[in-house]
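Tutorial handout. Part one gives the primary structure; part two gives the three-dimensional structure as C-alpha cells.
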Amino acid sequence: MSEPITYAAAGVDVEAGDKAVELMKASVRAAQRPEVLGGLGGFAGLFDASALKGMDRPVLATSTDGVGTKVAIAQAMDRHDTIGFDLVGMVVDDIVVCGAEPLFMTDYIATGRVVPERIAAIVAGIAAGCRQAGVALVGGETAEHPGLLAPDEYDVAGAATGVVEAADILGPQRVREGDVVLALASSGLHSNGYSLVRRVFSSAGWALDRDVPELASTLGEALLTPTRVYAADLLRLLRSPGVDVHALSHVTGGGLAANLARVLPQGTLATVDRATWTPDPIFELVGRLGQVPQLDLEGTLNLGVGFVAVLPAESVDEALRVCGTLDLPAWVLGQVGPRSAAQDGVPVVEGAKGVDGGAVQVVGSHR
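Part two.
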C-alpha cells in the first residue's frame, strides 16, 4: 500500500502560510485608517462608510491591477520589498484620476511555494505604499500553487475602492479648448513595458548586476526603482484654492498619448511638445540598445511623464507652485485645441483603449 498523500506532500505548506501572516501583521497594522474595523485574519475587510452619509451624492470608484513582468526582475534579484509599492501605485493612482479619494485596498499573491520572509517583504512594500497614499490595507490572500508556478515564482495583484462627490468627478466633460496640459514626472519606468525592457537587455547580454554609469546604479537596481505613488499629492493639488483641475491621466500601458487621449472630449486635440522635457537615461538606454522605433517606445513606456493634469490657463501658476511644495516635478507639456489644428504628417493618437474621446499629437524633439 502506498504512503498517504498529505496536503504538505502535494506541495502546500499551511504552517508556512501561517508564519507569513504573523510576519506581515506589523506592516498591515501600520497601513490603516480610523474607519477600518476589525483586524487581520477575517474573511472580509471591514470599513466604516458612515462618513459617506455626509456627502450629497457619493460615487464609489474601484480599480484593480498588477505589476506585470516587473516581478521577474524582483525574483531574479531576490529582492521583494519594492514590488508591493509598485502594486499600490498601479491601483490607487487609477482611482484618483476621476477625482476620487482612495479609501482601502486588498491584495492577492500567488506563489509556487510560500517562503514566509518573501511574502512578508512583498506585503511590507504594499503597506508602505498604502501609508504614502493614505489608503488602508484591509486584507489580502496568499495562495500556494505548486505545479502551476515554480517554487520561487509569484505574481501579485490588488484592488482598491475610493469615493468622490458626483459633482466633483473629473474627466472629458470638464475639458475645454485652451486648457493647458501639465506633466508630472515619473520616478522611472514605473511598472509598464517590462516585456520590452527585459527583451532589450537580454538581447544585449546585459546582466542585472552590471554597473551602468549613466544610471548611477546597477541595471537591476534601476529596473526595480519603485513606481511613484501620486494619490496623496494629487488630492492635495485638487483641494488647493486657486487650482481647478479638469482632468487627470495616469500614464501607464500605452504611453503618454494614448492615456491622455482617454480623458479628452471628442473633437479636441492635445498638442504635446517633446522639447519641454528630457527623458531619464533609462529610457534612452532602452531605445538605443534595442533600436526601438520612437513611436513604439512612446507607445509602451512613460518616458518620464507619470501623470498628466489638464487645467485652465489661469490655474497653471498656482498648480506648479503647489507641486513644488510637494517635491513633485511638474512642467507645462502642451495645450488643448480643436481637432482640426492637427499638424500634417505627424501621427495622431485617438480611440485608445476603446475610448472614443479626443486626440493627441506629440511634436518636436526631446531636449
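Part three, for discussion. The chain is about 30% helix and 25% strand. The first helix runs from residue 14 to 29.
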